[in-house]
Amino acid sequence: MTHLGLVSAAAAAEKGFRVIAFDPDSKLITKIVAGDYPIYEPGLAELIDEVGDRLRFTSDGADIGQTSVMYIAADVPTDEQGDSDIDSIDELIQLVASQIDDGSVMVVMSQVPPGYTRQRDWPDARLFYQVETLVIGEALQRAGSPERFMVGCADPSSPLTPAYAEFLNSFGCPVIAMRYESAELAKIANNCFLASTLTMTNTLAEICEQIGADWSEIAPALRLDRRIGPHAYLSPGLGIGGGNIERDLRTIARLAAGNGTEAGVIESVFLNSAHRKKWILQTLHNKWGTEKADLTIAVLGLSYKPGSSSTKNSAAIDLLESLSHARIRAFDPVIDTIGARFPNVGIAASASACCTGADVIVVMTAWTDFAALTPDVLSKAAPGAIVIDPWAVLDGEGCAAAGLDYQKLGSIALSVL
Asked: Does 229 have pLDDT greater than 90?
């Protein structure tokens, strides 16, 4: 019952199925039953309340004995190098395999390296790998209305077992069958394409900042090109956040090295990501020429992306580590502490309180909540401040008109002369 498991269970119950949500950690299950969820996902608590008795949480393995379809849906942790730890997935599979009926279908949905599923000790005709497409902050929408299901099978030409097919078909989207290894690689391929698009977007957006172009004017034209598409990932960012994309890139790098294929593009993605994470510091340096020791900086957002409470690979945390000399106040809608790691950082009670008296206001996570900080509010809270807003959450032209020095990704700075 980590992020993937909780969301998947709730989405299945929403479709009308009876769902048993199992985790061997009895303390965790007790907290979940009491409404104390281990993750933040918009709308999750409300959906669990809505589905009611169709969703039952348990830590007793005996409760899953009559399951028709069993999903292995635990999140796979990654270390500082982006490598996956799949030992916990092995242990979970062994535990549930000893409990469920011999006729049950087992579906591995946790993200595992190519080759993993075929090595599991379970009858091929009832063993599948289903690609998870979890996007933190949008997880319920994607779980309830998926674009497609990608299913790895021992034999893609054979029909899926009836119970599993019935469940997938209830979502009303295409079901694409492929061999185990193709499905395992499909998720990784998806993230690699996202990473490459983001890298090219960041590269071009940075050029815009230097030559007077505006990326926000270019992106809509690109979306109208059928070869790129209306949903292309064309929003500049501050490098790769979270752990999933980094893990998948490193998996491809290892596969390439082990199989003698060329994958230099992967290293270029990491180099670009590291470079763009320093954009805030470079912007400050460009304003003053050298770093100032007496700045008061307001940091809006600590999570690596909106809709998440995770700070793994967060650009905000990277920034805090680089600004140990500055006085910093921070605010995030779902994170209220960062421990003793940053003694120079105070946690504000609200976004407006965070900005009061600041020399610099930096939007580090694109929470829509921050749009309530109007130019009038900001100019009164921090007259003449520099506002660095990478994703244009705020009203940039309004900020400039209110006497604030405004900068976003992919564009020259706006200020009133």
From this structure: no
